[in-house]
Amino acid sequence: IGRRISAVLLSAHACAGLLLRAVPARARESRASRAVSLSAAQLPTLSDLADPRQWLEDVEGEEQLDWVKARNAESVGRIGEPAKSECYTRLLAIMESDEKIPYIGRVLNGKYYNFWQDEKHVQGIWRRCTLDQYREAEPAWELVLDLDALSAADGVSWVWGGSTLLDEGPEVRKERVMISLSRGGADAKVSREFDLDAKAFIAPSDGGFELPEAKTQLSYKDRDTLLVGGAFGEAEMTDSGYPRSVFEWKRGTPLSQATKVYEGEQTDVSVGGAAYFDRGHRYELRYRSLTFYTASYELKIGEAPFAAVRVPADATIGTFADQLLITLRSAWLGHPAGAMLAAPVASFMAAADDAAIAPLLAPLFTPTERVSLEGSAETKNYLLLSCLDNVVAECRFWKYADGAFTLERQLRGEVGVSPSFSAVDSEGSDAIWVTSEGYTQPTTLSIANAVAPEKMEALKALPAFFDAEGLTTEQLFATSADGTQVPYFLVSRSDMPLDGSTPTLLYGYGGFEISLTPGYSAGAGAAWLEKGYAYVQANIRGGGEYGPRWHQAALKENRNKAFEDFEAVARDLITRGVTSAAKLGCQGGSNGGLLTGNMLARPTAGSLLFGAIVCQVPLLDMKRFNMLLAGASWMGEYGNPDTDDWDFLRTYSPYHNIDAEAAYPPILLTTSTRDDRVHPAHARKLVSKLLDIGKGDGTFYYENIEGGHGGAANNKQRAFMSTLAYDFLEQRLVGGAD
Predict the structure, then answer these.
(1) Is 121 a catalytic residue?
(2) Per-domain boundaries in the chain
(3) Class of domain 62-91+465-734
(4) Using one digit for the tens of pLDDT, what is the confidence trace for 42-83?
(5) For the chain, is the Cβ count within 10 Å smaller at the N or the C terminus?
(6) Where are the alpha helices (DSSP H) in 529-607?
(7) Where does the signal peptide begin and end (predicted)?
């Protein structure tokens, strides 16, 4: 789980999932009986919440999938078969290129592990080599696990879900992991124990651990004990679909005999536990995620009993050696929201009250109006803090020695280029990976030492997958409705005419404190920028670009701020002459799908600002989102529609706000049947309503039968879905649409 433990132990994108719990279709109901009148077609509305399309919430029902397949065929027929497109060939070649950087996921026993997919390895292979071999242009990789062969043997399209290490301390050789695999890319996974020396799974008959398909959380407590949640049925799950209990499962015993050691409430988002070593110190953590942004923690140090960690409910914690690390989302004991603090963990746990805690706290990061904390990484002796200064990357190197942290240096990037730093082996050395990339700068990977990070050894580099000659990156600011200055990045040709004629794609997210920073997107470059079009990334409120305050400014009843920011960027692009409404498209997925869904439905956006919209794996029905899959876990972000919160949620529920009398720009909605995080019914129902109210000419829909929340399970599917979106946008914004 790493040494830095967050409140939910999941990223905001990964943090919401549930096994498919389909809502049954109306029994034996025929298509004819579901035909709706013109008045019923507009349901649900803000005044009448009756929903005639709940039948589409049955994820894998035969009739529902027939409806999906019919919509897929219509959209492909109108846009064109992506697999026959020049764009598809180009994107697939990029995705399967042997020149991609083989990033290292783990370093164990002197071996560097990489997961790889290409044309020959569609599902992927897990492989390893030494550092000297990795330095070579073509490393001599040793195959560890072949997912294509495993899929063929099992008759299942397995998608890699990562590995969990058995860590018995720095002096003990590491040769066991739990490998997680999902069917078609779903969040629910099967977990099996794997022997790294034998390069084989350990069968249960030989004493190996194996967990059934579930939304499982797990950690080794010791060689013969797993801490497990999520594999014990619905009674042990929260309303959000996460585990609500922790069990200890002993090797060689049935899972049914595992002992419950910790539990939370049904209304919690998630409950979990983990045991780990941190630079010679042994910890065991238990947590209850009360909401998406609040949690309670219990910590066990060595052989001492568990004790509550006295931090604010919205703080996150971690450890570094014998230090407790605390990151604040609200002000506490004189320290502002967004700060990171350190304290001796033993003294902190022994402190009786805030008065005793306060003098123990040493600030490692204090935010300003411009500078926020983006994340952290740890080497053996250094804590690396990744910061954003007006959305420009910066890294601060804190050395830990003799019970104290000392700030040794700061390294700053430049506008449009993002350097990032991570540990090679956090327990064994101070070696660091240094990655640098920009919108038009291919990614490079170097290795250095935290002692002198400026001295880098270049290891790998992407080729230029698209022609970036003549392209420039600018950081600009738009003024939102309330006067807030909203940054955005514009990538365009240096000789772009400012006459509104350039087809432009505006991308946004604006939620869950996730920052959008510059990165090399070979796909966007090859499919869009290389053709002379412009690309824009908006840093709207709801994200984390300026820390918790930027995120909290667009929570719940203030969600409109994110939408107003996005509209402000669109207007600014039009005012500057970069593009025009007819030439401007927007794109977003997941929470960004809610954003782009509102760009369709809001009277201040729609065709006034956009000529085309791409809405991917979206959240759109804000009345029922908390009842669908992982939706209950997001009420901390959006609110609870079963309370008075509906008074503001109704204002940004696209499903309820679209109307037969309004004019809408063309929209492509995409999702995945196997998405067990955001229910595919969000997109299904909005598309069905658009068709029913006579908006079929401008409505396009494609649902990948596999893919999970990422929308695709392998490179061919990824290339297909990307091509579909780019072809749709180009046809609508450039010309040639039907």
Answers:
(1) no
(2) 62-91+465-734, 369-462
(3) alpha beta
(4) 889 999 999 999 999 999 999 999 999 999 999 999 999 999
(5) C
(6) 548-552, 560-575, 591-601
(7) 1-27
